[in-house]
Each structure stands twice: as structure tokens, then as C-alpha cells.
Automatic annotation (TrEMBL):
Keywords: Acyltransferase, Endoplasmic reticulum, Membrane, Transferase, Transmembrane, Transmembrane helix. InterPro entries: MBOAT_fam, Oat_ACAT_DAG_ARE. GO terms for biological process: triglyceride biosynthetic process. GO terms for cellular component: endoplasmic reticulum membrane. It is found in: Endoplasmic reticulum membrane. It comes from the Eukaryota. The keyword Membrane applies. GO terms for molecular function: diacylglycerol O-acyltransferase activity. This is Diacylglycerol O-acyltransferase 1a.
Amino acid sequence: MQASQLRLLYKQGYGNVAVLSLMSFTKLYQTDQFVAGYFTDRLYILQNMNIVQFCEVEEVPLCSMKTLSLSLLSGHVEESPPGIYDLLNSSLGGREGGRGTQRGQLVSINIFFFPSSDRYGILVDPIQVVSLFLKDPYSWPASCLIIVSNVFIMAALYTERRLSVGTISETTGTFLYLVNLTTLLFFPSATVLMLTSITPVGGAFALCVYTILFMKLYSYKDVNMWCREIRHTKARTLTRSHSCPSVAQSNGSAVHTHVSYPGNLTHRDIYYFVFAPTLCYELNFPRSPRIRKSFLLRRLFEMLFFIQLLIGLVQQWMVPTIQNSMKPFQDMDFSRMIERMLKLAVPNHLIWLIFFYWFFHSSMNFVAELMRFGDREFYQDWWNSETVTYFWSNWNIPVHKWCLRHFYKPLMRRGVNKWIAQTAIFLVSAFFHEYLVSVPLKMFRLWAFMGMMSQIPLAWFVGRFLRGNYGNAAVWISLIIGQPIAVLMYVHDFYVLHYVSQS
């Protein structure tokens, strides 16, 4: 066992096991009352898994790390090496002079990571995760709902085909799109609300797919409309060539060449856009020359590893913390509520960071590589954000580009004030956040909506009064504290609605 990889497992009287991974010890010792770890030139004294004191020493008796760690794991602790009691007593007693001269002061470092296994047990259960998606193994409502989304994709494609040849007017096309996109939002939400067999996790996943599809088809509508405007402005008919084949000839073609409107109105084109990791439609996306198999396998391994890690952290760490937070909320014990919120902030933020890496780096790069999609700018350095607006502009680049291209700039071209346009973007974002949370949970509390709208005064305050590191600290604090507040609010309301009221 290497010193840099060593973790001290301390077995107490009734089998309580805790993990200390704060530092790498080079020597370890066990007594009836203390555990001692020798790190560089200092001896750290541990009692009840807290570092209660440290002192500078010149020499420590030898002890086999491998033997001690194995004996601790097996529950059998060997006798301490000669001289260890003297060393511990001299350091705790503050003896003047010599090797035991006390140099440090009392230090208490609480070990805050996973709950001990004897307190909660091993809570990681993959079968439970599957049951979140499926109540009945023969009923797949969320999957069926996602399959139905093809109807809306085909409706958008055939509407564009009729518009391209002038069969229907722009007014009629706009009306058809309005019906299609409105139904695209309300049909899945109504299905999730009325269907009792669909679980909250399955419903949330289906609504995420429909929300992404809504933004994609809206972009599809705008770009094709801009192409028609350019064609009419130039007042000329587009000459077809080999690079711009007819609609019938393009379906099923494997040739990737430059495409011009209306040669893009094909099944192949629209489904490539649907699966591509972008929300903004283009007639000709940047493409990579080949699929890098080694890069693809690395991203696939990261996806599989981090999703398992996320599930394990949620089950082992977050669920017990949330369950223990219900009583303080019911009793309105504000001090305990704050303590539970802060206790939840650490695992929640860690899980959020892991999810960010899993989704925006591993998953989106995997899909992009598989589809040879060339634009890989999925995020920027949001962690260096000194303002709230910089964070929201850089942590989710696909959504930011969509808002800028299809919402913010059109409002600005119509003469809308810049501040009003930014507020409108936050309003739309708040709606979709609430849409993706309240509908699957089948309760409307507006916590997510209010959380997003609170970003507006926070952005003004940080931008006006805080600069540099202070602004960056404010952004991080809002991320660490804000999310667990919303999580506890929804979990508490869900618990009261489904358990307390029924009992």
C-alpha cells in the first residue's frame, strides 16, 4: 500500500467506521485511546476521528502501514509499537523541551464526507434506479411519449416544404408553426399530469426531450424563414445543382456536400439536426473529417463511470440528508433548517459539478464525435465568473446561443430596451425551469421560477457593487446555497403532499 494512497480506517468499539482522506500519512499507530499519524515532520493525534492536536517530532518508531491497515479492516488491532504511549503522552501533556515540545494548538477538523456505513448502511441500489423509470415493467409511458415526438418533427418538415414551394402563405405557415410548437409543449405536460403510471423521473426526462425539441424546431422555423426572405429579396430563383439536389433525391443520400435552401428540407437533414448537440439550426454544420475511436471510447468510459458515481452519491449521501431534513421543516426549527441546508449544500454542489462534466463534456462530446459535429463549444470558463450575467452566458453555451440568436437580438431589432430584453430571457428561462420541475412532480410551488427570477436583482447587485474575486465569490455562494434551498423546498412540499396529507 502506497503512502499517497493510504486511507485510515478506524474501527471503534461498536464497529463505527469512518474514512479519513484529508492527508497522506507515512506512518500510522493505534492505541486504546488514540490514533496517531505521522505526516512529514509532524505527528497528528486523532481521537474519535478528529485531529485534536499535532506536534513537531524528530523520530517516530517504525510501524508497518500495511499490517496496521489490514488489522483495522479485520477488526483486530495489534499492540502498539514500543514507545508510542510515551510519545503520545508527551505531546498531549505539553512536556517542555526535547522531542515532545508542543508547538501547535488544538485543531478540530470535522470529517464531512460520506455518512458512516453503520449509521445508514450501504444505500446504493441500482435496482431502485430502474424502478424510478418503470413502475410496471410492461408499461413504458415516458419512452412512448418520446417516440410520439416524431409527429411534431414531421409536421415542421412538411410545413417548411409547403412554404418553400409557395403552396401555403407565410401567415398560414406561421399559424401552423404556432399550433405545432404550442402542442409540443402542452401535450407532453398534460400526458404527464394525467397519466398515473409515469414516474417523476421518467416524466422529467420526457419533458426535457420535448423542451429541447421545442427550441430546435423554433430555430428550424426561423432559419428557413430567413432563407426565404433572402431569396425573395434577391428576387431570383435558386439554381439547383449537384450540391443542392431535389428533396426526393436527397432522402437517403450519403453524400455530404454544400447545401442551399430549399435543398435542406430532407428527412436526413432535419434528423441530423434533432440529434446534433446544438439548438441552433444551420444549413451546413461544421463537420470533422473522421470519427476518432480513442476519443469516443474515452468519452464513453467517462459517461458510464460518472453516471454510476452520480447515482451512488445521490443514494448514499443526498437521500439520507434530505430525509433527515423533513422534521426541522415540519417543526419550523429555523436553526436546524439552516444547518440541514448547509449540510445539503456540499453534496448537492459536488453532484451538480459532476453532472455538469458528465453532460456538457463527456456526453455532448461523445454525441458530437459520433456525428462528426465540428462545433464543440459547449461551455466556457464560467467558474471564473465575476458577474452573474457572465455565468449565465458561459455555463451553457448551446442555450445561450439560442437565446441570443432567436430571442434577444430579434427583440433588440424591434427597439426593445436592453434591460427589458435581458429580463424577458430570465422570464422565459424561469418558465422552463418551473415547467421541468413542477409538471413531473405534479405540484406547482414556483420555487424554481422564483429562484431564476431572483437572479435579476442578484445580477444587478453583483455587477454594481462587487468586482474581481468578490464578484466571483458571490457567484459561487449563490450556486452553493441557492440550489439546496430549492431542493429542500420541493422535497418538503412533495413529502407533505404525498405522505403527511395521506396519513
